TrEMBL record:
PROSITE patterns: TAT
Keywords: Signal
Organism: Kitasatospora paranensis
Annotated signal peptide: 1-32
Record-annotated membrane-spanning stretches: none
Record protein name field: Chitinase
InterPro entries noted in UniProt: GH (IPR017853), TAT_signal (IPR006311)
Amino acid sequence: MRHPLHRLRAIATTATLMAAALVPAAAPQATAATAGIQVYGAWQCSNDACTWATVRDMADFDHNNHWLIDRGDGRPSVNLVVLSFVQPLSLLDATNDAQTADGVPIGMNSAVVDYFTSHGIRVMLSIGGITYAGAWDTALAQDPALLGRRAADIASRLGVGIEIDYENSSSPNLVGLQAFIDAYRAAHPYDATGTDPTARLTIDVAAGDRWLIPLDQYATAHWLTTANPVLDYANAMVPSKQPSTGTAESNWQEHLTGKPTYNPPIGPLAPAKFTAGLYIAEGSQVRPECNNFPASLQKTTGDWVANAAPAGAGTTSGLLGYMFWAAERPSTRGVTTDPPNSCEGGVGAGATAYAVPVPMPALRQN
């Protein structure tokens, strides 16, 4: 995903959930082919194009985002939201100003986190976005280990995970990023059980293997292996516009196969180590992915995502699931997912069709 101000490319308690109302008769039915989807989430913007620069009135926040916690029958539409974005240099400096507290936008507070976690939805914060690629570069050059410790501290304070969205396409500071990850993992070690929300650390890569190439190559080789995982998984972000079914699957297949002819080569990525990104709000259009599941890409690509076979890495078939860009207002001038454009009929219906588990279960590891 990319920051909205630059025309984003591309982001109840358990008892209440168990007691949710029956699925409406018109809802799509779950199938065995798609029973393995474990991650089904949305990148979450605020009402100010992902800057989160004001503290939200929670009644207004609920009005704009209620579909995320209620697909229409009392159950959430997603099992993950990723609050986007934290500015890396502000985080490093622990900035406090009118829009920022301890380096984090003031709108990303415990009230927003609790809004989702009280309904069994996992929460993460995304550091970066395309607008903040330069801020990533500066922060990593100054003190990447301190940046990692700052991220770990915020994760502990809010009870969230962290997503790395570092979109330097040509010359990313991989030594610095390794130091950031090492520092974060020193505070929050890798947790295969998934029970510790602060241990969830992920990274964004391109839709396929032909952009963010150095980052993709290094992450695949060093952080996303099944034998010695460092990051939990990667998100294959949305491309410049919503793809066709065939183009989407071709992009994702590149991660599975890798690029052996590149120098250095990009190795194959295990299906269990990444998710597939789709738009729900794009420019001025409300996508079928938001409001019309039968016509959506999560419907037409569902069998492929659930059954994609390993192509040199991993032993189990099927990607982890889907991520949707983006809830509420991802762009200053584009469409929002506020009512009447809320996404129960697309994302929510897909959660029903694919029997998405809420809360998110322990993820496949190989």
